[in-house]
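Here is the promised in-class demo. Please do not try to memorize the tokens; focus on the logic of going from shape to residues.
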């Protein structure tokens, strides 16, 4: 299995071999450059592809066989970066009208400013996950201790508002690294990613966004949306109806993946 530990072992051994060859035969310096480039590319892949399991195992899909009657092709909807005053209430209204339960991975500083909305999400039957407190632009460069403190601050905010402590965690930007792996372990979190990224923060054309998400559906899919995006509000009713017409049924992420959402 390709992961950080195995990669270090293989490239460490390769480095020793190159050093031996250099002493014995005086091989070109470019061999070392190539080794370094290859190592860097693997680290980049492991960090920026959330489903790589390179630093930590991240759940990115669920069971293809649904525990819900007549839901032969189950999928789960998830929403990141809220709660957002403009859009989260509208998304909650749509989900209620459609009879769909979802997962909301909330940013702590926004949750702290909208505790009532956090309770509204929970009381509507949805689950709430940890998406960090700060969602800082340089979060990936934090130390493991600072990351841990950030995640626990979000948990404290959630517990204060709802009495619940999230166990599910989605990495900001989907980026993982050794420090985050340590923070996840220290906090006792279960990391959750996705296997369908809607790109609703980038794609503003409703038809294009709908084609992209519907076209990528498959049983057990975890779909990533954002409850900070106006276009998501616009397409969500149609997305749910078209997914159902294709034989898919939206069930809650913890049920799809058989996970405990709270500690």
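The designed amino acids, position by position:
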């Amino acid at each position: 299995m390709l992961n950080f530990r195995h990669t270090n072992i293989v490239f460490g051994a390769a480095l020793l071999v190159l050093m031996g060859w250099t002493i014995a035969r005086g091989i070109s310096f470019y061999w070392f450059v190539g080794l370094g480039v290859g190592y860097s590319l693997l680290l980049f892949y492991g960090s920026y592809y959330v489903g790589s399991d390179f630093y930590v195992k991240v759940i990115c899909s669920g069971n293809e066989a649904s525990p819900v009657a007549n839901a032969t092709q189950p999928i789960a909807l998830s929403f990141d970066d809220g709660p957002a005053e403009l859009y989260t209430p509208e998304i909650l209204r749509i989900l209620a009208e459609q009879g769909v339960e979802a997962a909301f991975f909330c940013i702590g500083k926004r949750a702290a400013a909208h505790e009532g909305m956090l309770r509204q999400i929970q009381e509507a039957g949805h689950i709430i996950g940890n998406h960090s407190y700060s969602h800082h632009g340089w979060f990936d460069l934090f130390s493991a201790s600072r990351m841990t403190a950030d995640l626990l601050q979000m948990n404290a905010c959630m517990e204060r508002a709802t009495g619940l402590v999230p166990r599910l965690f989605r990495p900001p930007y989907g980026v993982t690294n050794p420090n985050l792996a340590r923070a996840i372990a220290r906090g006792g979190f279960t990391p959750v990613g996705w296997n369908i990224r809607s790109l609703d923060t980038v794609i503003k054309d409703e038809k294009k966004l709908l084609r992209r998400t519907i076209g990528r559906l498959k049983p057990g899919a975890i779909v990533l949306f954002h409850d900070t995006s106006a276009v998501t509000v616009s397409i969500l009713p149609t997305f749910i109806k078209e997914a159902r017409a294709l034989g898919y049924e939206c069930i809650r992420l913890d049920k799809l993946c058989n996970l405990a959402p709270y500690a």
